[in-house]
Amino acid sequence: MQITLNLPDYLLLQLLQQPNPEQFAQQAIAMAIQQQETEQPSRWAKLAARVEKNPISLGNYAETAKQDGKAFRESLVFQHDVTAKTR
Prior knowledge:
- By secondary structure, this protein is mainly α.
- Helix content is about 70%, strand content about 0%.
């Protein structure tokens, strides 16, 4: 099977300097996939998974939290939003 990859020039130049560029690319991709499969999730990923699996009940505070979140989103302004409105 063949695919087309877009690589930055500096990577392509380094790849082409290898004795067997195709074999080198195959091995590099295989090693990257294997490493990704064996890596432990970060603390944030573990926390997110734990919260998703067992969410904490906010009790009576749930509605207040929703209102606070909505107010925050509505008041949040990015610089590109400001410049787009002034054009």
